[in-house]
Structures are given as C-alpha cells and as structure tokens.
Design goal:
Blueprint (H helix, E strand, L loop, with lengths): L8 E4 L3 H13 L3 E7 L6 H4 L3 E6 L10 H11 L3 E3 L9 H9 L3 E2 L4 H8 L1 H10 L7 E2 L6 H11 L3 E9 L2 E6 L5 H16 L4 E5 L5 E9 L5 E13 L2 E7 L6 H17 L4 E10 L4 E8 L6 H8 L3 H9 L16 E8 L1 E2 L5 E2 L2 E2 L2 E3 L5 E4 L6 E2 L6 E9 L2 H13 L2 E3 L5 H9 L1 H4 L8 H4 L11 H14 L7 H4 L1 H6 L6 E7 L6 E6 L8 E5 L5 E10 L2 E6 L2 E12 L2 E8 L2 E8 L1 H10 L7 E3 L4 E6 L6 E2 L4 E7 L2 E6 L4 E6 L6 E2 L4 E7 L4
Parallel strand pairs: 1-2, 1-4, 2-3, 4-5
Antiparallel strand pairs: 6-9, 7-8, 7-9, 10-11, 10-13, 11-12, 12-15, 13-14, 15-22, 16-17, 18-21, 19-23, 20-22, 24-25, 24-31, 25-26, 26-27, 27-28, 28-29, 29-30, 30-31, 32-39, 33-35, 33-38, 34-37, 35-36, 37-39
Length: about 675
C-alpha cells in the first residue's frame, strides 16, 4: 500500500475508552467516525459521541465485537472507507485484517502477513533472531512430540516456561520448576492453547524470575521508513496483565537502552512493518541483558505515556499512514521530554482476589487537570461481558518522582459511586518503596504485599467526619439541623444540644453526632462520638458542594466529600490522608427498615456476587459440603470466579446450570446448614 488511499469515514471495530480515543483522532483530521455496538453498549458514551452508530449483535463478544461479517456489513452500510480495530478483540487477528482488505476497505494497522508472522510466538522469535535481536534460550522447533519436548526440557534445565505459540495474556503458559512436572505442564499448556487459540503448538523458554518488562514503541510507513518513539516499563503486572505503565523505562543503562531501541527498529524494518507496533522485552537487571519477548502488532493500551513524552499523537499518525502518507519525522526529531505514568482503572475488588465489580455507575467525579481516557460516565452500566478496565489516568511531569506524586494526588481526588474500583490498590503500588527503588518486576506482586493487601479503612477521625458530612447533607439548604431532623426538633425548644445517630456496617453501636450553633457554616460546631467513645469536634463546619470544611483544634481542614445513596444505606466518599475512603452509614430509618426486612439473605443460600455466566456446578442435591468448598464457578469479565459454600451442610436445591446467565444476587445453591442435619 505505497500509494495514497482516500477515505473520509472510519468504522471503529471496538468499544469503550479506545473507541472514544480513536474518535478524537478522527475529529482531529476531519474524518467521520462510525461506532459499532452490542445490545449491552447501546447507551455507552462512545456510541453517543460517534458520527454514526450501528448495532451489530448481542452482548456476548462472539455475537458482536468478534463477529467479522457483522462488522463488515456495518462498514458497507455506512459507507466506511476504513476500519480501525483498536486493541483487543480482532486487533491482532490476521484473518480479520485480510477480510477488511478483501472487502476493499483500508485496515488501519499493519499488513495481514505481518500480523500473522508476529502472532506466532515461534515465528516471531525466529524473525527476531534473523534481525540480530537477542532471544531467551529455549526450544522452538517444529517437532512437537512429547519425547522431543522432554528432551529439550532436560537440556534447558529448570526453571523454564512452556508457552503457547499463539498465546497471549498468560493463557497456555506453565512454569516448570522441577523436571518431574514437565510432562503435565506440556499437556495442560497444549490443551489450554487448543481451547483458547485453536492451536496446540507450544515452545520452551528459560524463565527469568525477576525480569522487568520493557517495550519499545515503533512506527513505520508504507514507504520503508521506520523509527522508534522511545521505551516504556510495564513491569507491575498481575497474571501477565499490566497495572501501571511508565515512559521512559526508568533505571536502564543508557547503552543497553540504545541497543534495545535500535534492535526494535531493525526487526520492524526486517518484516516490512507499517503503523504502530510495540516490541516487548524481558530485561534481566542482574545480568544486564535483554531478550525479545514478542511484538504487538497494534496500538497498545499504554500508548498515552508515549504520547505524553513525545507530544506525538499516535492515533493521528496511524490514520495518516493508513492514507499512504510518509512519516515526516526523522529519528533525531523525536522529542523525549519528562516522565509519564499511566494507571489502569478497573472495576474490580483487589481485597477480594480482584473480584470483578458490575452494576451502574451512580457517581463519576474524576479529578480536573489530568488526562483521563475513559469509556464510562455517570449512569454507565458496567457489564460482566467485557474486560474490567474502564479508564486510564495519565500524568506527565519533568521527572519520575513528580509523575508519581501527580498520579497519587489524582487518585486521592477521584470519586466513583455504584461500582468498586481498584484505585486504592493502585495507590498502594505507586507508594511502595520497591516501586520507587526499581526493585519491582513482572512476578513481584506477592513480594510487594507478602501478607496480602487490604482496603484501607477510615480512621476514627475520618469516620466521624463522614458522619458529619452525611448529617449536613441531610439538612435542607439554609436550615438548622435541629429544625429539620426529628431528633433535633425534640431538643432545640428546650435549649439542649441535638443528637442524631448513624450506624456503620461494621459496628452495632452508632456514631452519635451532636451540635450547637446557628446552622451549617460559620458558627456551627458538630461533635461525632464513636462507638468506642472517641470524639471528634469540628468548628465552623459546613458542606458546600462536594467539599467538607471547618476547623479541628484550631487547624482548618477542607476535604472532598461526596454523599450518595446506595441500597439500604448512604455512602460517604471522603478524601483522607490515606486516600479516598468510602464509609457506609445507615440513618435511624435505614436501621428500622433493615430490622423489619431481616437483612439481606441467609447464610444457607449461595448467591451470585455479580452478573455472569455459570461455567460449572460442582455439586448435586444431597451432597455434603464444608464451608469454603467451591460450589459454583462463575465467569464474569473474562475471569473465572470460584464461589464457596457459605456454611457447612447438605445441598438441598440447585437453581442454576452450566451455561445459564444469572443476575447479581441471584440465588444459586440452597443448603441445609450442618447444625440442622
């Protein structure tokens, strides 16, 4: 594709934040955007913001975002001249790229041949070797017999990895630390690779246990020009999924950095690469060596950090190169300024083994002044059908320490209601001394938190301030609390300080809020007495907009405070020195209602913690189970969740079957508790 290609309308074969990002790139060049969407995404922001939108199928990705024919039909129906795949879904599917070409459309990305070649890990490593790029020792031969693989495993020695040739995201990968487990590892990796990718081929590779993940952004045009846009570090990972990325990669020897960048350009030139691509490496800091890992033939999730330090719009250049334009920059013209950090914001609960969170976002209040690439807004529904990443927070500063500080400050001002996020966990990673000292590596999360990680809980002072914020929120504007709330009306005429009670989810006894003064604002004094007797007193306290302010012991304070209604209680999001915390509080009315309804569910009933698809039911009626035994396996957001028995007992009823789609809180298994049997 060396000539000029003309198109004015681009179909975006993706969803969420990357669809919105590509829409911005299209608007910058005066191109129209076409959104394709599933039934579940009908009200999503990326659909509303597109110039044209077409529904292509049901919520399941196979019925929509992976449906090649439906996407091509939408392109024809809307008169689209080009297709941008984004990342994920079909972005590295060579068959899709070829189908777009065959339909007479422009595929905004590399050639189908380049995608296919780099999509095979075996072929990609062979291409890297041919281009003089170092690779990890291992076996990548065509002989896939058990005997040959085991022979090569003995030669290689432990530890080593068995990896799927067509794999990605850690699927089809097994670590072998003892040769006695090699046969089982090979068999299970093959089976997973066949099921996930339709290709059982595997290869063996030496395992570098404390390596960092460093990658180089490359760009090529259709005229043979290739350059790099610097490097990134993506070593903070969980299950081979990146959590935090930064550019440039910190603490690299400059000579090795230069070698890595040059090797990446050589490889891209050798395969005739065009568009954006990323060459990924493992960097062994102990040996001061780097090894080719793979090449991603698409735009990366972490591309914004490269944009931040270079000032180059990667999506714009993808579009321009797809039109046949020539790269106008020489390598010496690429600026590399400052340091950037990207934090992936996901709907999951890290304190509960990263359990996916689903539901409706009732509050979305990101910090101002920061780049946020987001796929959601207030009112958005977070579905179990798709990846849990909702947005990306990007900061840029003159140095790494400044970018980290900005990221922490932004997290501390980020408030979301209705769906739990991983922000507190990401804050803990950014604050960790090992991250600051470059001791982190791709397998290091267990070392960072050897005793596990727990969600920070509000301190006594914070819980008291949260109760004050709720108290003031429930007071009508311009009114004194003792004139508007029942408990105050009884005491104000007698000249006594009024009292109101708020119950937290973790305490049987309430927080008692007492007050005096003319009303919210100047002159108002509120005291919050905790169940343990601790008292926090604030003077001149008021809640204006979403900010709680006043004075404690003569020292002024001002904190972000969002009060939102949740089922059966109020949730106060409060900015604290330890980050943003959420305190759930019940009023007297909420407390009476909970007692009247008997709470939510009994210990003898297993319910779905989120919407999802039932993958397995591991018990039958009459089975005796222990507390903690897995009863049902639920699939949500591409993850399998094992649901344990809440109590020991006998299974009496089963309300689901494999393949069923269930709603959040739906009953799954009924038990007769052990004490009754």
């Amino acid at each position: 594709m060396a000539g000029e290609m003309s198109f004015t309308r681009v179909l975006i074969a993706n969803r969420g934040e990357i669809a919105r990002r590509i829409q911005r790139g299209c608007r910058k060049l005066g191109l129209e955007s076409v959104a394709v969407f599933s039934d579940a995404d009908r009200e999503a922001p990326f659909v509303a913001e597109a110039d044209h939108a077409v529904c292509i199928g049901g919520a399941a990705p196979a019925d929509s975002y992976l449906n090649v024919e439906a996407i091509l039909d939408a392109a024809r129906a809307t008169g689209s001249g080009a297709v941008h795949p984004g990342y994920g879904f079909l972005s590295e599917n060579s068959g899709f790229a070829a189908a777009v070409d065959a339909a007479g459309l422009v595929f905004i990305g590399p050639s189908a041949a380049a995608i296919a070649r780099m999509g095979s890990k075996i072929e990609a490593k062979a291409a890297a070797e041919d281009a003089g790029v170092p690779v990890l020792p291992g076996y990548r031969g065509e002989d896939q017999s058990d005997a040959r693989l085991l022979e090569e495993a003995r030669k290689l020695g432990t530890p080593f990895l068995v990896k799927a040739s067509a794999g990605g995201g850690g699927r089809g990968m097994r670590l072998v630390s003892d040769l006695s487990g090699a046969s089982e590892a090979i068999a299970s990796a093959r089976a997973e690779a066949q099921g996930a990718f339709g290709d059982p081929a595997v290869f063996l590779e030496r395992y570098a246990p404390r390596a960092r993940h460093v990658e180089v952004q490359v760009f090529g045009d259709s005229h043979g020009n290739v350059l790099h846009l610097g490097d990134r570090d993506c070593s903070l990972q969980r299950n081979h999924q990146k959590l935090i990325e930064e550019a440039p990669a910190a603490d690299l020897p400059e000579a090795l950095r230069d070698e890595m960048r040059a090797a990446s350009v050589r490889l891209a030139q050798a395969i005739g690469y065009r568009s954006a691509g990323t060459v990924e490496y493992l960097y062994d800091s102990e040996r001061c060596e780097y090894y080719f890992l793979e090449m991603n033939t698409r735009l990366q999730v972490e591309h914004p950090v490269t944009e931040a330090i270079t000032g180059i719009d990667l999506v714009e250049w993808q579009l321009r190169i797809a039109r046949g334009e020539t790269l106008t920059l020489a390598q010496s013209d690429v600026p590399l300024n400052g340091h950037a950090i990207e934090v992936r914001i996901a709907a999951e609960n890290p304190a509960e083994n990263f359990r996916p969170e689903t539901g409706k976002i009732t509050l979305w209040a990101p910090p101002a002044g920061m780049r946020l690439d987001s796929g959601v807004a207030a009112g958005s529904i977070v579905s179990h059908h798709y990846d849990s990443m909702l947005a990306k927070l990007i900061t840029h500063a003159p140095d790494r320490a400044g970018a980290i500080r900005q990221a922490i400050a932004a997290i501390d001002a980020f408030v979301v209601g209705g769906v739990g996020l991983n922000l507190s966990y990401q804050r803990a990673l950014l604050n960790h001394p090992d991250f600051h000292a470059f001791r982190h590596h791709t397998s290091g999360l267990a070392e960072l938190f050897p005793d596990g990680w727990a969600e920070p809980t509000p301190k006594a002072e914070d819980a008291g301030l949260a109760a004050m914020a709720l108290h003031l929120h429930l007071t009508p504007a311009g009114a004194s609390p003792w004139d508007s709330l029942g408990s105050w009306r009884l005491t104000a005429p007698a000249g006594l300080p009024g009292t109101a009670f708020y119950w937290s989810a973790s305490e049987e006894d309430p927080i008692r809020v007492t007050g005096s003064g003319p009303g919210p604002g100047p002159g108002t004094v509120l005291a919050a007495v905790q169940p343990d007797g601790q008292t926090i007193t604030a003077e001149n306290v008021g809640l204006t907009g979403n900010r709680l302010s006043g004075r404690i012991d003569g020292v002024p304070f001002s904190r972000i405070a969002h009060v939102v209604r949740a089922p059966g209680h109020w949730r106060v999001h409060l900015q604290t020195p330890a980050g943003m915390t959420a305190t759930d509080l019940r009023t007297l009315e909420d407390q009476h209602l909970q007692r009247a309804t008997g709470g939510s569910g009994g210990a003898d009933l297993l319910t779905a913690p989120m919407p999802g698809a039932v993958a397995e039911v591991r018990v039958a009626p009459g089975d005796r189970v222990k507390a903690g035994d897995t009863l049902v396996v639920l699939e949500a957001m591409k993850l399998l969740q094992s649901l344990p028995a809440p109590v020991a007992g006998v299974v009496t009823e089963i309300y689901c079957a494999p393949g069923d789609t269930v709603a959040g809180h739906a009953p799954l298994i009924k038990l007769d508790p052990e004490e009754n049997t």
